[in-house]
């Protein structure tokens, strides 16, 4: 009897502890006294929550004990915390409107939630309100208005972002996360803008950390971090869709106006407080910007002799004409190239599919599975102009998270499909039709030499019917049989080369992937005395190019790297001063480990006035390509800098510098020409040769110091000011060496005559090696931003950035190029509620001129002119049907501007969009 009674009591106790409470309430706005639908209601420090229905009411199911604290929030309103002590408690929540988003919460700066005013480092945020009011064509385009942000457009579907200098079109020094997932492509090793990112309808916010973030995020965050947060299906439910149509290429004589279309759909539903899902579909299609700068950039021709009539012409966006010869008695002559418009696929598109399932296992534990599929076409400016054609990127993400921890694993896979190199494509097409002097088409491997032979014969007047001493006539004769763009023969040759990979074609093949697991735990609530955060990560690259880029047909290439960090924070002086110290250790299997510490302090003079200072370090591991490229391109072999990539080749250990060979060769030739026997000439000049001393590749390094102030004055003016100074070492670069089969040095430690003889006989092998520069350079900058709330809901904002690069005594060819304007400014002006349900926003960007250095033009400078761009939109809200109509444009003044040398000039996009947003509840 006693045993039965005990069982009943235990069952009652368990049932009492686990009984489900139903907490009910209503949420409305203080300014209108109207119900707020879709407001979030969450239990503090738990994952449990719900949203309000169209009447502003909510029912929150909770298994546990009272009292609890619930947090109520809504877009554009101040959040509020309410203590709940009874299930029958009458909860009436009035939220005050946020007339300006000055007290945003951010998570990226310290990996925990905090007020943006108290961030220990500079951070910028694009909130959901800002995203909705963004006048640019996409939210991603609008990132350029953030303070200190740099952007480069290679394509309509591909814009690259960066902060604090060393800008590039493919930025492997800048980390981009979407819901914690690194969406870089495994083969390219950088994120292709938002081509494979989140749909505008699903983006909740975007946070940007300028400068080094390696102490918390590892090696990729060398120069900054962009963290994109998507919408939680519990908090943002219902059906949303967007239809946007526009035109570009206005007043473009090459194309005429072209249509653009963009459609997107998002649907999210919570079956209860435990299970929710969302799906996203978006599709963009349009005609890409044309790269049609035909400036002659021939390195072999003096500047005043360049132009369309230059026999050695090498036009910037014409390809195939970089193949040239110095013909005896004639001079340098280049082959006839093909314009980019005949090689690139300008019909671009982007398809993004996304699905996520969220399940709340308990009040404090949530499981998430998310799948993303992206496929699209984009133009990318690298060492050539690449067509990323039907490129596919997929991610699978599984995550377990609580209020103070998360554990996340994901895999990112790519398929390059029909992608190709336009410069190589032009060269291969040019080798398919060349005729010898008898009119017979020759094999591609002798086509270039044969073409120059025809040119020389015609120019020298040895061909009947051809005017001698005429470059025009000689080129016409040499080009006989040339495939004309648009012809069947041209298209057949083009298609064959695109689908031929490696040395024999222009195709780019990669089915590479990487696996990643990371997690963190916040011990602060358990320790109390100080804040403690710890975490770690592991990544495994699995590269596969089938021998087209790496030596991986039989040698499988994988790279493992791991890291761990800890962060301690403590407040002093009545919580006015907060000091934080972070340190991270990262290890790549091919390199020594790296410690990256960060120290910061934030002093709060008053609630809304905060001064900050920080010391940060950053590092960047060489990418898989930097480490393992193994590509024989005929006269030279490009070799990555990982030690095992050159095992057995004896290159790093036994080679001569190219510079010394360039001195030794002419000296021996002159001596032999003067009558000296070759062996004697070689022996007399062998000491001109210099043994190379090329180190295996290692990570780049950065040290940075920053001070700043962020404050809110009279609840109307937000001020943000910062100064930074950064120093850099070990920039990754390429160097050329020549390797003999004989030892470079003899037993006496001097240059071996046998090796010198191989150099003289030109039987040595040439290699382009990846290594690091020993030079040290520095950069500094100041950014200043203001946001002011005017009467009537008008908001005026502006920021300015000054950037300075100090080359010091470094060789400009041995460091990454800064590629950043000295001055850049942004200004915004808008009102979300102008009256009559109208709103508008205008954004203006200006930057000064600067020289752009990139591999596309052989690391020779190309001038980027100063330019300004204006984006604007006006919208009309129709609350009765939950719809907003927006009329706007990017670069509305239609000033065509190039943002990197060799990339296309970007003009206006005018658009009209309709956004329907109907909550389920």
Task: Chart the SSEs and their pairings.
Elements: H1 2-18, E1 20-29, E2 40-43, E3 49-51, E4 57-63, E5 68-73, E6 80-84, E7 91-95, E8 105-106, E9 114-115, E10 124-126, H2 128-133, E11 149-155, E12 158-163, E13 175-178, E14 181-182, E15 203-210, H3 214-217, E16 224-230, E17 238-248, E18 258-270, E19 275-287, E20 318-319, E21 324-327, E22 331-334, E23 338-339, E24 347-362, E25 365-381, E26 385-401, E27 405-415, E28 420-421, H4 422-430, H5 447-459, H6 471-478, H7 488-498, E29 513-522, H8 524-527, E30 531-543, E31 557-572, E32 577-588, E33 594-606, E34 609-620, H9 624-628, E35 630-632, E36 637-639, E37 656-657, H10 658-673, H11 678-685, E38 700-713, E39 717-729, E40 732-739, H12 753-760, E41 765-772, E42 777-789, E43 795-806, E44 823-835, E45 838-847, E46 850-852, E47 862-864, E48 867-878, E49 883-890, E50 909-918
Parallel strand pairs: 1-7, 13-16, 36-41
Antiparallel strand pairs: 1-4, 2-3, 2-5, 5-6, 8-9, 10-15, 11-12, 13-14, 15-16, 17-18, 17-50, 18-19, 19-24, 20-23, 21-22, 24-25, 25-26, 26-27, 26-28, 27-29, 29-30, 30-31, 31-32, 32-33, 33-34, 34-38, 35-36, 37-40, 38-39, 39-42, 40-41, 42-43, 43-44, 44-45, 45-48, 46-47, 48-49, 49-50
Helix pairs in contact: 4-7, 5-6, 10-11
How would you portray this structure in words?
- Among the domains are: 19-95, Immunoglobulins (Immunoglobulin-like); 303-343 and 423-504, no CATH class; 626-697 and 735-772, no CATH class.
- The protein has a 22-stranded antiparallel barrel. Strands 10-15-16-13-14 form a 5-stranded mixed sheet.
- Mean pLDDT is 91; it is low at 5-17.
- It is mainly β.
- The protein is 12% helix and 44% strand.
């Amino acid at each position: 009897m006693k045993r039965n009674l005990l069982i009943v009591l235990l069952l009652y106790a368990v049932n009492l502890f686990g009984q489900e409470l139903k907490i009910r309430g209503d949420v409305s706005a203080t300014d209108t006294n109207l119900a707020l639908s879709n407001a979030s209601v969450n239990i503090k420090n738990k994952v449990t929550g719900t949203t309000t229905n169209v009447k502003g009411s909510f029912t929150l199911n909770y298994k546990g004990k009272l009292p609890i604290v619930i947090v109520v929030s809504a877009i554009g309103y101040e959040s509020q915390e309410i203590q709940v002590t009874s299930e029958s408690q009458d909860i009436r929540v009035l939220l005050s409107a946020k007339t300006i988003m000055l007290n945003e919460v951010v998570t990226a700066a310290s990996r925990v939630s905090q007020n943006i005013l108290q961030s220990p480092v500079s951070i910028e945020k694009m909130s959901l309100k800002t995203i909705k009011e963004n006048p640019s064509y996409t939210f991603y385009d609008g990132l350029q208005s953030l303070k200190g942000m740099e952007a480069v457009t290679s394509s309509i579907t591909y814009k690259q972002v960066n902060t604090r200098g060393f800008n590039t079109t493919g930025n492997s020094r800048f980390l981009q996360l979407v819901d914690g997932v690194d969406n870089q492509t495994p083969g390219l090793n950088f994120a292709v803008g938002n081509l494979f990112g989140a749909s505008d309808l699903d983006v909740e916010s975007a946070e940007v950390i300028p400068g080094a973030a390696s102490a918390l995020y590892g090696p990729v965050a060398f120069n900054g971090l962009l963290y994109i947060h998507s919408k939680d299906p519990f908090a943002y439910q219902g059906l949303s869709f967007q239809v946007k149509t526009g035109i570009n290429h206005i007043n473009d004589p090459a194309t005429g106006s072209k249509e653009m279309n963009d459609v997107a759909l998002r649907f999210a539903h919570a079956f209860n407080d435990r299970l929710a899902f969302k799906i996203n579909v978006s599709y963009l299609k349009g005609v890409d910007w044309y790269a049609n700068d035909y400036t002659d950039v021939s390195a072999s021709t003096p500047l005043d002799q360049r132009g369309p009539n230059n026999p050695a012409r090498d036009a910037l966006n014409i390809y195939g004409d970089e193949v040239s010869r110095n013909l005896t008695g004639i001079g340098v002559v280049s082959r006839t190239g093909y314009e980019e418009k005949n090689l690139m696929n300008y019909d671009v598109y982007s398809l993004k599919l996304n699905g996520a399932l969220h399940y709340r296992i308990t009040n404090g534990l949530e499981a998430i599975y998310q799948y993303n599929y992206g496929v699209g076409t984009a133009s990318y400016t690298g060492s050539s102009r690449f067509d990323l054609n039907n490129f596919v990127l997929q991610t699978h993400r599984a995550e377990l998270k609580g209020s103070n921890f998360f554990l996340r694993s994901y895999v990112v896979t790519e398929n390059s499909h029909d992608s190709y190199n336009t410069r190589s494509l032009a060269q291969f097409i040019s080798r398919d039709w060349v005729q010898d002097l008898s009119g017979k088409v020759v094999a591609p491997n002798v086509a270039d030499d044969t073409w120059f032979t025809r040119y020389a014969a015609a120019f020298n007047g040895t061909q009947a019917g051809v005017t001698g001493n005429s470059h025009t006539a000689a080129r016409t004769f040499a080009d006989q049989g040339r495939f004309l763009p648009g012809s069947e023969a041209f298209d057949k040759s083009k298609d064959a080369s695109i689908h031929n990979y490696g040395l024999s074609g222009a195709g780019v093949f990669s089915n590479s992937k990487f696996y990643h697991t990371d997690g963190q735990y916040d011990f602060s609530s358990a320790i109390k005395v100080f804040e403690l955060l710890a975490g770690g990560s592991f990544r495994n690259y699995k590269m596969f190019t089938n021998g087209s880029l790496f030596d991986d047909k039989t040698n499988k290439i994988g790279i493992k790297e791991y890291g761990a960090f800890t962060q301690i924070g403590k407040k002093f002086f009545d919580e006015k001063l907060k000091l934080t110290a972070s340190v991270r250790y990262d290890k790549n299997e091919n390199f020594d480990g790296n410690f990256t510490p960060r120290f910061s302090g934030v002093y709060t003079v008053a609630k809304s006035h905060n001064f900050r200072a920080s010391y940060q370090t950053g590092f960047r591991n060489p990418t898989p390509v930097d480490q393992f490229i193994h590509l024989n391109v005929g006269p030279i072999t490009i070799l990555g800098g990982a030690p095992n990539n050159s095992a057995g080749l004896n290159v790093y250990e036994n080679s001569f510098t190219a510079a010394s060979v360039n001195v030794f060769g002419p000296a021996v030739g002159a001596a032999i020409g003067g009558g000296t026997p070759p062996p004697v000439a070689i022996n007399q000049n062998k000491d001109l040769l210099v043994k190379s001393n090329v180190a295996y590749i290692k990570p780049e390094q950065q040290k940075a110091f920053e001070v700043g102030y962020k404050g809110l004055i009279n609840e109307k003016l937000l001020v943000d000011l910062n100064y930074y100074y950064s120093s850099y070492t070990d920039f990754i670069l390429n160097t050329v060496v020549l390797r003999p089969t004989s030892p470079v040095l003899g037993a006496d430690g001097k240059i071996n005559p046998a090796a010198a003889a191989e150099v003289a006989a030109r039987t040595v092998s040439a290699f382009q090696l990846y290594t690091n520069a020993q030079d040290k350079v520095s950069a500094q900058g100041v950014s200043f931003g203001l946001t002011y709330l005017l009467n009537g809901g008008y908001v005026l904002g502006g920021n300015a950035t000054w950037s300075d690069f100090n080359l010091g005594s470094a060789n400009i060819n041995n460091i990454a190029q800064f590629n950043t304007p000295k001055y850049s400014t942004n200004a915004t002006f808008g009102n979300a509620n102008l009256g009559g349900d109208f709103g508008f926003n205008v954004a203006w960007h200006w930057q000064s001129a600067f020289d752009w250095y990139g591999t596309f033009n052989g690391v020779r400078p190309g001038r980027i002119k100063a330019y300004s761009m204006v984006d604007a939109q006006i919208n009309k809200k129709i609350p009765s049907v939950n719809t907003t109509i927006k009329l706007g444009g990017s670069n509305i003044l239609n000033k065509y501007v190039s943002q990197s040398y060799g990339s296309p000039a970007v003009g206006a996009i005018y658009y009209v969009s309709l956004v329907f947003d109907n909550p389920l509840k």
